[in-house]
UniProtKB/TrEMBL annotation:
This is Serine/threonine protein phosphatase 2A 57 kDa regulatory subunit B' beta isoform-like. The lineage of its organism: Eukaryota, Viridiplantae, Streptophyta, Embryophyta, Tracheophyta. One of its GO terms (molecular function) is protein phosphatase regulator activity. Residues 1-37 are annotated as: Disordered. InterPro entries: ARM-like (IPR011989), ARM-type_fold (IPR016024), PP2A_B56 (IPR002554). GO terms for cellular component: protein phosphatase type 2A complex. SUPFAM superfamilies: ARM repeat (SSF48371). Residues 7-19 have a biased composition (Basic and acidic residues). It comes from the Eukaryota. GO terms for biological process: signal transduction. PANTHER family: SERINE/THREONINE PROTEIN PHOSPHATASE 2A PP2A REGULATORY SUBUNIT B, SERINE_THREONINE PROTEIN PHOSPHATASE 2A REGULATORY SUBUNIT.
Length: 467
């Protein structure tokens, strides 16, 4: 009794949970106390876990915001006072931001998306330099004339990657809150950039936005059409992005259902066909021809409208455009039905014959090679009585007076083919041509004689006055 209560002899043995070894763990007296302790222990652990997780998520958001605010500052890359080390640091921050966004498995909250799109807009939507050359000097195969690297590209290409990642990852509803009509118009303005790398990134982003934001598609198509119309009718400056915008249109047209809507047919007639008119057409002709071909392939009846439109905008002095348009007409003829070809046989053969007689040897040779196309020959044979006189006259004119030996040789080959195809008709047309030439020569002789008589009378009158 006199021993201390904490004496080892007197102290009871306890287990790891603090219970007396002598008492049963399921004792009614002990059970309520034990259940309460265990529940409180679990709640404490859960609260500690939550309190540790929330600051971590908060710290990640704060880190992203810090990167965003740092990257919002822009550099001109032309100001000598700018520090190259700071420019490199911003590039590293942009790469870190891109990597962080890629690694996140949950959608970004609004408090991050809003400053993030502000940062993107601040970097991308900047004044562009004026075009370095006019559209007249842009050649189809001379890319060096249209390539001007963007000095800020080390930063811009990462910003484009971030924007593309957001477009692909965000839901359409969330994306539409930040990519509105104003943002879309800003992207279209950037297509005037002379850096092909930037236009390629723009093309990818714009097409992804078009695919995802269905309610904005009509506005996006109209905005692109406005760019084309301004280029055709309101400016003489080159626009480097016409070909890229036509590539986007090519994929859009490819998805059109048949029959094609009236809205899209109006775009063909009012925008695509007039795009054959500008002097710099050869810079984007490949993409334009693809769009045109998609329309005609889906509805062959549109071929009549297209061909007549191209003939209406036929160049007078631009030989490079003539060569391209001859090839485009040849492809269109191959995709049209016989009834459309019959309608177009006479105007097409008349234009091709004019090109055959061109003093530019490249134009003349390209026009002569059209007669190797079986579909074109078949088209001409449908209206052979009307087209043969025009063709024969063109062949004979080349054989008599063209300066190029190769053109004369190709003309001789085409003449032999036509004679074999319709020998009687060819001889008849040739006789009519000789008769017209004889009549023309006789008229020319009579006109010359009358003029000589007038000159003689004038001289006699002058001599009388002098005497």
């Amino acid at each position: 009794m006199g021993a201390h209560r904490n004496s080892p002899k007197e102290s009871p043995k306890v287990d790891r949970e603090g219970r007396s070894m002598g008492a049963h763990r399921n004792s009614p007296k002990e059970s309520p106390k034990q259940n309460s302790t265990t529940l409180r222990f679990l709640l404490d652990l859960d609260s500690k876990y939550d309190s540790g997780r929330t600051p971590r998520s908060k710290s990640i958001n704060e880190g992203i915001l810090s990167l965003i605010f740092y990257c919002t500052y822009t550099y001109t890359f032309t100001d000598p006072s700018e520090s190259p080390s700071q420019q490199n640091l911003k590039r590293d921050k942009l790469l870190e931001l891109l990597s962080t966004i890629k690694s996140l498995k949950k959608p970004l909250p609004d408090e991050i998306l809003s400053p993030l799109f502000t940062m993107i807009s601040t970097n991308l939507f900047r004044p562009l330099s004026l075009p370095s050359t006019s559209i007249v000097s842009v050649l189809p195969d001379d890319d060096d004339l249209v390539v001007t690297p963007t000095t800020a590209w080390p930063h811009l290409h990462i910003v484009y990657d971030i924007l593309l990642l957001l477009v692909m990852d965000l839901e359409a509803k969330a994306l539409s809150e930040y990519i509105d009509d104003r943002f879309i118009l800003g992207l279209l303005t950037l297509f005037q950039s002379e850096d092909p790398r930037e236009r390629d990134s723009l093309k990818n982003v714009y097409h992804k936005v078009y695919s995802k934001l269905h309610p904005s598609r009509s506005f996006m198509r109209k905005a692109m059409s406005d760019v084309f119309l301004h280029y055709i009718f309101e400016t003489e400056q080159k626009h480097c992005g016409i070909g890229d915008l036509l590539e986007i249109w090519g994929t859009i047209i490819n998805g059109f259902s048949v029959p094609i809507k009236e809205e899209h047919k109006l775009f063909l007639m009012r925008v695509l066909i007039p795009l054959h008119k500008p002097k710099g057409m050869q810079a984007y002709h490949r993409q334009l021809a693809y769009c045109i071909y998609q329309f005609v392939e889906k509805e062959p009846m549109l071929g009549v409208v297209v061909v007549r439109g191209i003939l209406r905008h036929w160049p007078i002095t631009n030989c490079q455009k003539e060569v391209l348009l001859i090839g485009e007409l040849e492809e269109l003829v191959e995709s049209m039905a016989p009834e459309q070809c019959k309608i177009l046989a006479l105007p097409l053969c008349r234009q091709i014959t004019k090109c055959v007689n061109s003093w530019n040897s490249q134009v003349a040779e390209r026009a002569l090679y059209v007669w190797n196309n079986e579909r074109f020959v078949k088209m001409a044979s449908q209206e052979i009585d009307d087209v043969f006189p025009i063709i024969v006259e063109g062949m004979e004119k080349n054989l008599k007076g063209h300066w190029s030996r190769s053109v004369r040789q190709l003309t001789e080959n085409v003449k032999e083919m036509l004679e074999e195809m319709e020998p009687i008709l060819y001889f008849k047309c040739l006789s009519q041509l000789h008769h017209r030439e004889s009549a023309t020569n006789e008229e020319e002789m009579r006109r010359k004689g009358r003029w000589e008589g007038v000159e003689m009378a004038a001289k006699m009158n002058l001599s009388i006055q002098e005497s």
